[in-house]
Amino acid sequence: MIRKKLRAVSLAILLIASGTMISGLKAASNGVAHHVSPQIANPPSPKKAEEQFKNIQVLKGIPAEQLLPTMQFVASSLGVTCEYCHVKNAFEKDEKETKKTARKMMEMMFTINQENFNGRRDVTCYSCHRGNAKPVAIPAVMTDDSAMAAAMPHGAPAETKASESKANNAKEAAGPTPEQLLDKYVQAVGGSAAIDKVTSRVMKGTIEFGGQSVPIDIYAKDPDMRISFTHMPGGESITAFNGHEGWLGTPGHPPHFMQGSEIDAASIDADLHLATHLKRMFTKMAVEGTERIGDHDAYVLLGERDVKPPIRLYFDEKSGLLLRLVRYGETALGWLPTQIDYADYRNTNGVEVPYRWTLARPNGRFTIQLSELQQNVPVDDAKFAKPAPPEGPAK
After folding, report:
1. What is the tally of helices (H) and strands (E) in the chain?
2. Is residue 384 within 8 Å of residue 242, measured between CB atoms?
3. Which of 25, 26, 363, 369 would suit a FRET pair with 109, their CA atoms being 20 to 30 Å apart?
4. What is the pLDDT of residue 303?
5. Domain 2-39+167-384 classified CATH 3.10.580.10?
6. Predicted confidence (pLDDT) per residue in 187-208, tens digit
7. pTM (2 decimals)?
8. For residue 336, what are the contacts with CB-CB under 8 A and spacing of at least 6?
């Protein structure tokens, strides 16, 4: 039982890597664009999947950093765990028929998209499986008198969703522009002058998941540094980003250094000035209409980015505050969504900050509730020092 609880906590800590400090959206300044997309000088050439992992057959040529997120995409789409296809502690073996079937299904999916959708990933594992290991081929009967909904899932590609939003054109035309939504958001937070004054944020609270509650401490400092300490029963778990590199540390294991979409997510979360950086981050913006979030109507803004997946922002129609953010991690098969919902806004030093946020992914969710928050307090840069890499070759 204890071992199961520790595994559950470890899952939550892994989730924190891409969402703990999204409250940094409410912080400061008119900084420059490199804060949003930090780069490492002279980065090494990325390895391909077959150069780092054994027995890669269908996914040859993809970046090695995308292989594990791609496997997570498959597991989430089918509602299974790794052992459904893989031999435990020997993932390279081909002893299970489900692994052989998965390869055939991926090849079929690639062919369908290439021959019918100009190579776009319009069809993915989730298109047919919808969380089931075996796709359902027969339509289900209606179980109540409510009308069937034909809502587009949040993970749909932007070019696909665009065709579905045409019915809302009349409402969109009468609503605010993307620029007006972002300007109203900045004013709702407290205005540029108040935002510019925030240079650090220190938070204490709890992280709740699976009926458990664990203490957490979070530190953020300009420029683009963020670290969280989750106090697990077996020791501290750490999620950190120093402005260029990120890592996760769990008790008894060497640090895991972030790659690819993890770095993208961490850089967004660590940016204390993101509220005023959003316009610079997006190459194209569009208002997609409105959606109901809890008791609030929200405008949905899609922000497209160069090379990287888009981001969806949900702003309260009345207050202008951010209620939800959805971002996507890149994999070889499709996008993995991460949804963060914000609540319990409180005014702190003239800036509205959410004291509660819930991060959800296909494979889990957690909620962080703050009990204490301080701004503009000293935070030593040494707190964000990168740990030594593990000895020996990477596995």
Report:
1. 11, 13
2. yes
3. 363
4. 97
5. no
6. 999 999 888 889 999 999 999 9
7. 0.74
8. 69, 72, 73, 76, 155, 261, 328, 329, 361, 362
